[in-house]
Amino acid sequence: MGEIKSAVELALEKTEGVRGDRKSLEMHEHKQLGKRLVSKVIDGEEVDLNKELSRYDGERLDWVRDGFFEVLLMNIKLPNDDIELQRIRRLENGFQVVIRDTAQLRELFKQLDNLLSQYLDNRRQMIEAVRQQFEGRIRQKEQELQRQTGTQVRLDPASDPEFSQYLRENMNRLQEQYSGVLDQVKQQLQQLYDAGR
Predict the structure, then answer these.
(1) Alpha carbons 14 and 39: distance in angstroms, whole number
(2) Over residues 168-187, mean pLDDT
(3) Is 128 part of any domain?
């Protein structure tokens, strides 16, 4: 039985005559390997990232690191809840593998953690404030429906289109306020990564 070849090997054989495409394909494949490593970081798996990266050298290592860094950076976003915040916190372990200035990285992640925690607190407070603001309107609608149907009705504010629209508008404003600062953090991470290359 013949040797089983990987998809990359088969693709490289087909593009053997075209040097530039072959290198592009190899670069793409190695970036993908780096990107897949990030899922282990996010999921909190025990993995020796340095050992994983030591499998590669030269350009291949650069490509794997680039893919790894790109996905780490993409996963820094405004969280919807504490679970997402925990996932973002775990990203620091991944960044420590590809950013040499770990002291600045730690400081930047402290600032990021404070920013995202504050965002979640403000988000919760805003949702509660909007709920309280609409509480009277929702109760009036419940009383109207009770008069019409003769049965007691409980409405969830989230099912009210007016409430949903108002909440969405306020949420968008809050996200805009924090997104600019978050973009600055990402730029600083990019600069730290570039400085260590």
Answers:
(1) 31
(2) 96
(3) yes
Answer yes or no: do 2 and 62 share one domain: yes
Query: CA 73, CA 65: separation in Å to the nearest integer?
Result: 12
- Same domain for 51 and 138, yes or no, is no
Task: For residue 71, give the amino acid letter.
Answer: V
Phi, psi of 75 (to 5 degrees): -85, 0
Tell me, yes or no, whether 59 and 148 share the same domain: no
Residue 11: pLDDT band with limits 50, 70, 90: low
Q: Which two tokens stand for residue 71?
A: 């996905």
Please provide residue 182's backbone torsions phi and psi, each rounded to the nearest 5 degrees.
Answer: -60, -40
Could you tell me which residue, 22 or 182, shows the higher pLDDT? 182
Q: DSSP for 138-175, please give it.
A: HHHHHHHHHHHHSS-----GGG-HHHHHHHHHHHHHHH
